[in-house]
Write a structure and sequence with these properties.
The chain has three helices and five strands; from the N terminus they run E-E-H-H-H-E-E-E. By secondary structure, the chain is of the alpha+beta class. The longest helix has 12 residues. It is globular, with a radius of gyration of 13 Å. This is PAS domain-containing protein.
């Protein structure tokens, strides 16, 4: 997933759909935090803030539970999928610049 400085998803590659079930079109424009399990959100926010403070090209790893598309129905509880994300700060542009980081979920 590619995100802007506010962690809004601006793009996703096919790996995201294989792991989480969401297409790039469904994810684009959503807040990334909305896909993170409530118990993992504080860690996700702290990791994102840490990433934004790192130099260009630096990477961080974090393992979080993400909402899987197949599990979100009115008749049953959400399905959560563990995904390890390698987050890389891609650009050192002026705040609030465009795409700031990318993450690739893997099981």
């Amino acid at each position: 997933m590619r995100k802007d400085h506010a962690a809004v998803i601006i793009g996703a590659d096919p790996a995201v759909q294989r792991v989480l079930g969401w297409s790039a079109q469904e994810l684009t424009g959503r807040r990334a935090i909305d896909l993170v399990h409530p118990d993992d959100r504080q860690r996700a926010i702290a990791a994102w803030m840490d990433l934004l403070a790192t130099p260009h090209g630096e990477a961080r790893r974090i393992r979080l539970r993400h909402l899987h598309r197949d599990g979100r129905t009115p008749s049953r509880p959400p399905r959560w999928t563990w995904a390890a994300c390698r987050c890389i700060r891609r650009r050192a542009s002026a705040w609030p610049g465009p795409a700031r980081a990318a993450s690739a979920p893997t099981r």
